[in-house]
């Protein structure tokens, strides 16, 4: 299979991977043959890319580190709880708050179990994207990314639970933001950004009252926008004043925000987001934590179409976690754009004169300077 932007999808193509709605329900299942009507539905659902089956890449499998049903359960738990908390019915809201800790412990336990069973796939975490910009999917993505870092640091199960639940709930305070801000499809104004900064304190105040959610998880919600040099919010903490869990979630939050589409911009390429994080080491985040995070990210995700310095086009077929910038590429077009029959695999680790210069599908990615981007 290979990743294709929605603008390049054509009727008759077959889905290679399940597509979910923003609230975690299955929109289209694997193997579905796309029609004009279904493609229009994907557009309305703000899906910017899908995996399709392609005879030239049929043996390339983009395995998910968490099962589709695990993602669905987690997204539905977040969506249901968040909506109940904002319910105008005080009794329904009270019941939801009482049950919240149990819901998230169950949902995150499933995520953790999947990650523990798929340790060998942790190096391909950039393939977790749901290609949906929703708050619910973002929360699950950040939980998966942060937990992978915790695993690499040797955290025991209880520490992973506290970290992961904090990650799932890190943006919970956004429920208290004005509805018009959450629905807005343009960039927030400077005034709106200042209002948005209150979400960390809102979330902390909700979570610290929950007897079955760790205070450490609540502090993840409070501190995930704090930065090492004191430039973050809400308290301008510095250095060791910021809990390690919050720093890990902050890194994961920045990465997933940059590599996900927004109504006002395309996603950034993974290598651009990673370069931004590398530059932030020792400045915004601890070097050790940035390095632990980057170990688990494939710069060029399996299934993505890339262009070599020769002009040849191929699909990433394998990634060596120790050399993620030099994957194995299935060459499908020559330097003139002609299809190659049969395609062949090229290991860039063994071909030092060849290298990837970018992705074929410019429709998917923003090429401007990531350093000027902000995440809230």
Outline the structure in words:
- Helix content is 40%, strand content 12%.
- The protein has 376 residues and is of the alpha+beta class.
- The protein has three domains: 2-57, Molybdopterin biosynthesis moea protein, domain 2 (Alpha-Beta Complex), CATH 3.90.105; 68-299, Hypothetical protein af1432, CATH 1.10.3210; 305-366, no CATH class.
- The chain has a five-stranded antiparallel beta sheet, with no helix packed on it. A two-stranded antiparallel sheet has the order 1-4.
- It is globular and about 65 Å long.
Spatial strand arrangement across the major sheet: 9-8-7-6-10
Quote the average pLDDT.
86
User: Count of DSSP E strands?
Assistant: 11
Described by its quaternary structure, the protein is: single chain
Secondary-structure content class: alpha+beta
The largest pleated sheet is described as: 5 strands, antiparallel
Summed up, the domain count is 3
| Low-pLDDT residue spans | none
Order of helices and strands: EEEHEHHHHHHHHHEHHEEEEEE
Task: Just name the CATH architecture of the largest domain.
Answer: Orthogonal Bundle
Our estimate of the beta-strand percent is 5-15%
Stated plainly, the CATH topology of the largest domain is called: Hypothetical protein af1432
Pfam families: HD_5 (PF13487)
Domain HD-GYP: 113-309
Organism: Brevibacillus choshinensis
Protein name: HD-GYP domain-containing protein
